[in-house]
Amino acid sequence: MSLRAQLATGGTVLAARLALEHGIACNAAGGSHHARRAQGAGFCTFNDVAVASLALLAEGAAENVLIVDLDVHQGDGTADILKDEPHAFTFSMHGERNYPVRKIASDLDIALPDGTGDDAYLERLAPVLPQLSGQRHWDIVFYNAGVDVHAEDRLGRLALSDGGLSAREDMVIGHFRKQGVPLCGVTAAAIRPTCRRWPRATPSCSRWRRDMRNSRAFHRFTETANRPISLFLSSSGRNPLTLFLELLYPSYFL
Ligand SMILES: [Zn+2]
Fold this sequence. Notes:
This protein is 44% helix and 12% strand. By secondary structure, the chain is of the alpha/beta class.
C-alpha cells in the first residue's frame, strides 16, 4: 500500500476539516480524481476528494457537498464513487479529447475542444458557478484546481495562459468566498508529470496564497511546520508533494 497515497488522502480529509473551520484550505497533494470505488486508475490510487466528501457526510459535518473539478482530465473516478450519493454533486469541466477515453458521467459535465483559450474557457465557466450555487446550500466545495489546462502542459490541449489560469482561480475562489461557502482546494500536484510549469504554477497559487494568508488555517499550517506555506506553493527545485507532506507531517521527515 502506498504511503504517499494514504498521506495524500488523509491530507484532503484534514484540509476539508480546516476549510470548514477557517473558510479555506488546500492540499497540494490531493486531486487523485481518476481513482474509482473498486480500483485505482490514471496515476491515482485513492480518490481523496471522494473519500473526504463521504467522510464529512458520514460524520454529519456536511449535508451537501459540491465538487468543482477543473483539471483538464474528466473527473471520472469521482463521478463513479459519488454517483449514488444524493448529497454530493459532481461538476467537471475538461478537455473533450483528453484522458479518460471512456468518461463516467458527472452530475454536470462540460467538455471543451482542443485549443480552448482563456476567453472561451472563462466565458464557459462564468455562468456555471452561480447556477451551481442556486441549486442548494452547499456546506463545502471541493475545488480541483488542476493546472494542466495551461498551454505549457504537453498533454493538456486547452492552451490557457498564466493570466487565464490566474483569472480562473480568482473567479472560482472569489465566487465561493463571496457566498461564504468553505472551500477545500486540491491542486493535483502528484499527477502533474506532464506539466513543466509545476511546481512553479504561480498564477494559480497566487490566489491561494493571498486567501490562505488571511485565514487562520494558514497560521495553523505555519505553526505546525514552522515554515511559511508559500514555501511549498512557490517551491522552485523541490518536489511539491514532499514539501507538502513535510508541512503536514513534519515529524515523519525528522
Ligand atoms: Zn489532469
